[in-house]
Specification:
This protein is α+β, with helices and mostly antiparallel strands and 197 residues long. It has one domain: Glutaredoxin, CATH 3.40.30. The chain has nine helices and four strands; from the N terminus they run ααααβαβαββααα. A four-stranded mixed sheet has the order 2-1-3-4, covered by helices on one side. β1, α5 and β2 form a beta-alpha-beta unit. The protein is globular. It starts with a helix and ends with a helix.
């Protein structure tokens, strides 16, 4: 396995460890990452509330459960994230529920700013966009595919908004969060399993 990926797996969080870490930071008015700004701290607090809600309400679609139950190989899902990232707060609970639905998936999370070498291997159009899910075959240690930072329809929403308005502002972020709310994690689930076929 690529030594960078191997090193990242060793220092990774389980989902529960990540959640505990984010909760502690939110309670202490802090955030993950190398920057501690008021805006990022506020996003961390907001995302803590989102994570709590989605952990309770997120469900895996029946067709996705069927696919996950038929997996023959074992996988790591190694995710680059930060507590202030709105997309990560929407996607991580989905990944966790999917991993819980299969004994073949080991979900691991690393912080982007602490794993820049890994992030640089999985850039999106030259940017360090997160979350980024790296799908790894546990037996061969081969990277099968990667997903992120958001599902295709959500990506198009942001691209179109930026083309029309020139920036991604708070209105765009609100529209994106509404999209996630209406989608209920279905697009993420189906796009991830499509990458594993």
């Amino acid at each position: 396995m690529n030594s960078i990926i191997e090193k990242s797996l060793v220092s990774s969080f389980s989902y529960q460890e990540y959640r505990n870490h984010v909760t502690l930071l939110a309670n202490d008015a802090k955030t993950t990452g190398h920057e501690q700004t008021e805006a990022l701290i506020n996003y961390t607090k907001l995302n803590e509330a989102r994570l709590n809600r989605l952990d309770k309400t997120m469900q895996v679609a029946n067709d996705v459960k069927l696919f996950l139950n038929k997996l023959e190989k074992e996988y790591y899902w190694l995710v680059l994230s930060e507590s202030w990232c709105g997309d990560a707060a929407q996607i991580l609970p989905i990944l966790n529920k999917m991993a819980q639905a299969s004994d073949k998936i080991d979900l691991r999370i690393v912080l982007r700013d602490d794993n820049q070498e890994l992030m640089n291997l999985f850039l999106t159009n030259g940017t360090r966009s997160i979350p980024k899910v790296i799908i790894i075959d546990k037996t061969t240690n081969e990277v099968i595919n990667d997903f992120g930072p958001r599902p295709e329809e959500a990506r198009r929403l942001i691209v179109n908004y930026k083309a029309k308005h020139g920036i991604v502002d708070e209105t765009a972020k609100i529209e994106l969060q509404k999209w996630y709310l209406n989608d209920k994690g279905i697009s993420t689930q189906r796009e991830i399993i499509a990458l594993m076929k």
